Amino acid sequence: MSIKLENKIKILEYKLAYEQEKQISKEFEEGNIDLNYRLSFFREEIKKNISEHDTQQKNVYNSIFPSYDKVKHTDIVVSDDDKSIQKSFQKNNNIDKWAKKIYIRIIKSTHPDITMHIKSKDIRTKFDKIYDIAQNAYENNILSDLIMTAYELEIEVPDNVIQENITSSFKEKQKAINEFKNMIGWQWYHVPDSNKDAELKKILTSLGFKFTDNEVKNVVKSRRPQRKTGKRPEKLSVKRKRLK
């Protein structure tokens, strides 16, 4: 694959940022859920102590207790009725021609109908991951992800395309990573167990809540109900098209 060394490095840096953002977002989600559970013991009292005119304090409260009903979860559904996989390529008419060609090559190499006969589970899992990323990238015009998956399969990508898309996307990933790290949910995830009492006291104090050391101690010790890894309140549903 004749890609300039500097562009190979850019793709590898982007891939690292992609995986890092994915991991950090999971840590934020886990930390946010856990912190919300701890603070739910004090939620009603916190609400009562927030002044209608104290905008700053209300913003702190809202950052910890987000309004989940305002978040819309979109299901991605791919019909099984089309006669061939090529018809799915018509779903995004705004994508560049080079991206469409690369996407077709990726799908033809990683589609489950093709990889299902591979004996190695690890290899099938790898191709499934590439397939899912490429499909999402194509449907949502995330060209940097498409380039990344093409590189994984040693599919040729023009150097000018890499330069145009990877650098800006890499900066966006870095920005997203830094934003996650500044969120209280991610910070709570990384608080050592030995410091959780003190950290929870700081958060409650910032919200203007009066509490006792014993209350905080009991709340921190409380065992949060566990959910299955990767399970969300509203699960993203992706139906893969069957190759014919």
Question: Overview of this structure, please?
Answer:
The chain has helices at residues 5-40, 43-49, 55-64, 97-110, 112-115, 121-139, 143-152, 159-181, 184-189, 196-206, 213-221. With 244 residues, the chain is mainly α. It has one domain (5-221). Helix 4 (97-110) packs antiparallel against helix 6. The longest helix is centred in the first third of the chain and has 36 residues, at 5-40. Residues 67-90 and 233-239 have low confidence and may be disordered.
Oligomeric state of the chains present here: single chain
Please describe the biggest sheet, giving its number of strands, its sense, and whether it closes into a barrel. Answer: none
Which spans have pLDDT < 50 for at least 5 consecutive residues? 67-90, 233-239
- Please tally the β strands and state the result: 0
Q: Count of DSSP helices?
A: 11
The mean pLDDT is: 80
Termini distance? 30 Å
User: Which class best fits the helix and strand makeup?
Assistant: mainly alpha
Assign an overall shape.
elongated
Helix content: 55-70%
Gist of the model:
This protein is mostly helical and 244 residues long. It has helices at residues 5-40, 43-49, 55-64, 97-110, 112-115, 121-139, 143-152, 159-181, 184-189, 196-206, 213-221. It is elongated and about 65 Å long.
SSE blueprint:
Elements: H1 5-40, H2 43-49, H3 55-64, H4 97-110, H5 112-115, H6 121-139, H7 143-152, H8 159-181, H9 184-189, H10 196-206, H11 213-221
Helix pairs in contact: 1-7, 1-8, 4-6, 4-7, 6-7, 10-11
